[in-house]
Amino acid sequence: MSYKYAIILGNLGNTRDRFCQGYKQNPSSEEMLKLALDRMPQIQGIELVGSWDIRPDNVSDMKKRLDDAGVACASIIPDTFGNPLFGKGSLTSIDAYVRQAALDYLRQMSEVAQAMDCGIVNLWLGQDGYDYLLATDYDQERSWLTEATRALASEFPEIRYALEYKPKEPRNFSYHARMADTILAAKETGCSNVGITIDTGHSFYAGENVAEAVVLAKRAGNLLYHMHFNDNHGSWDDDMIVSSVHFTTYIELLFWLKKTGYDGWISMDQYPYREDAVDAIAESIWWVKKYEQIVADHYSEIDALIRENDAVKTSRFLRGLIYG
């Protein structure tokens, strides 16, 4: 089985940080879509960020553009992280008005997903967490988070809600921080359509072994709904080209995705601050495809090496991949 590949449309646009408020010109969503379709024939899907790329007023136009190009909407990513209203939390804000506004917005984005024939709403709740100690009722805020997620999943049972975890940023501590606590968050809803997105870079700097995270999601009841690929140096969410840093990690990851039967999207999520965005993201796709091919060609051999548990033989195999 070959995976379906996708990109997050906004990754082709402007990139900013707290030092430079714009490394590049920011094209419109329509211009970014044309760039992707013209220069990235290897993709079959596009992820759209709510409010940035997709809104109730442009759903029909965006759906026609994707349909005409023969490209699917891989996921809708609601913007609960860039709106100042949600700066102290969206679904976990201590302000009941803000919590309701967040839930209403997520309902709107779920309706947008329905209109786009998109089966996944990717929830990266980046502002839902905390910064200071002795300033947060963890139990209450986690209860609000569970209740709101349950409400969404119950109202839209045909949509799969994928909780994307990340240990920190923009908050110092995120409620969906690692695979284990995000499994708990999904399970606490009691809804069969709440699962998890793994972002490889988030997993790296969470101190996880991302392949083991895949297995945990499988053991929890096939909770892995979606995948974001990028790379980093392990201490921050650098969002670099796949394989800039890691090699063996990706081989093991692709092996366990295959072994656990993952059949979702393989989507790129990176911010090429200074590089040509299309070229950089295309490099990531070609790298993942290369790892996919390595696993396909050597699946039985890798499986046997894992069962044999001989680090030297595994090293010899990996060296053979590089040097022949």
From TrEMBL:
Gene3D superfamilies: Divalent-metal-dependent TIM barrel enzymes. One of its GO terms (molecular function) is isomerase activity. It is found in: Cytoplasm. It comes from the Bacteria. Residues 45-290 form the Xylose isomerase-like TIM barrel domain. PANTHER family: L-RHAMNOSE ISOMERASE. SUPFAM superfamilies: Xylose isomerase-like. Its main location: cytoplasm. This is Sugar phosphate isomerase/epimerase. It comes from Niabella pedocola. PROSITE patterns: XYLOSE_ISOMERASE. InterPro entries: L-rhamnose_isomerase, Xyl_isomerase-like_sf, Xyl_isomerase-like_TIM-brl, Xylose_isomerase.
